[in-house]
Structures are given as C-alpha cells and as structure tokens.
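Input sequence (250 aa), recorded before submission:
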Amino acid sequence: MLLIRPFAEEYDKKRWWIGPVLLFCYVLLLYPVMDLLWLAAEWSDGLYHFLAVDSNQDLLFDLYDVALCLAAIWLLRRPLAQAWAGLRAYPKGRLVVTLLLLPVIDEAMTWGEWLITDWLEGTMGVVSGNQSAIEALAVTGTHTWLFILVTAVAGPILEELIFRYGIFRPLERRSRFVAYVVTAGLFALMHVWAYAVFDGDWRQMLDGLVYLVGGVVLTAVYDVTGNITFPILLHIWCNSLATYYMLLPA
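Predicted structure, token format:
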C-alpha cells in the first residue's frame, strides 16, 4: 500500500478527555457564551450596541474558534510534534505520492458530496443551512481575513484534532467499526444540529449525509496513514478551495 502507518504518533491514554472536552466547547459551549454576553449587554449600552451588529457577532464567533484552535494545538502539542517528526521520517517517494493523492481524494469526496447535495435540493427541497450561512459570511466582506483564517485553516485543524485524534483514536483501540460510525456521525451532526434545532427545520438533519461523506473519508485517511498531519492537510485543501470559490467576485 502507498498509504501506510509506519510512523503513527503515540496515543496518551491519560489525556483521553481532551477530545470530548474540545468537542463540548466547540459544539455546545459557544451558544451559552453568547447568551452570557447578551445578558451582560443588558447592563452596558456599549456592549449591547456592539452585539446588535451582525458582523460583530460573527467576529466573536470567529475569534472563539481561533482561540479554541490554539488551545487544542497547545493541549495536543506532543502528538502534533510526533506527527510532524513522523512526516519528516517518511520515505521521500512515499511522502510525495501520499501528498499528491490528497487532491485526488478531495476531488472524489467533493463529487460524492455534490451528488448528495443535488439529490437533497432537487428531490427533498433541503438547502444546507451550514453552507448557506458560510456563503452569507463570505459575501458580506466584513472581517474577510478572519473568515479565511477560520474557514480554511483554524476550523480544519481544530476539527481534525477533535474528531480524528480526540474521538477516533481512543475508540479504534476497542472497535474500528464503532470508531468510524461515532467519529463520522458526530462530525456530520456537528455541522447540522444547530440549524435543525434553532431554525426548527428538522429536514436539516438530512444534510448531515453530505458531511457524513467527508467524515468517513477524513477518518479513513487518518486510519490508513496513522498520521494526523494528512487529514489536516486534506481538510485545509478542501476548505481552502471552497473558500476561494466563495470569495470570487460574481
């Protein structure tokens, strides 16, 4: 096999809690934090007017993501350093072939996601709330640099550290099948649950099928290579292309 696991980073059993804690902060804690800010705004006219501007709310969401990404990198600095060292130790030919395969994998993954999206929109009338929200942010032109940083870099790094290293890695030690199901399922759910709950449109849960494809592919890349660097690079490549096309002038 061209993709093989000779230089996988070690897993620290004592730090199993990092993945679930980061997932909780990333998916569930952000909304209570914003609610607390609104509560504080009742006592401050300046904060109230700041939060009342949609672009400022988006700024806070993005800054929260960046801060959480930096926290994840710090908490997982040891396995990240091991993964980087392992990447440098790869035989040059195998490393080059693996890196060249990532855009091909992305193309296949994108094609699969497009087929499901086309079916959901055409047959079920489901328009992705997550994708619509991202596209809306892209066209506003406010905090563009931060939007690019979060969408193309910080988001992919954070999600790979949470789902592939923090969720898949400990579960695979017990059952690889269960690890795939839980990791890909949570990855898909994370992208759609808020739109289903807060918008009251439970059809948005079907949009999770699109992200399920990406969740399985990214998990497989990590499973086969054993190096968290590769799914991070694939995720960054995928989101960077999507961000580039969203920011192109109409």
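Checked by second reader. The chain has one domain: 14-247.
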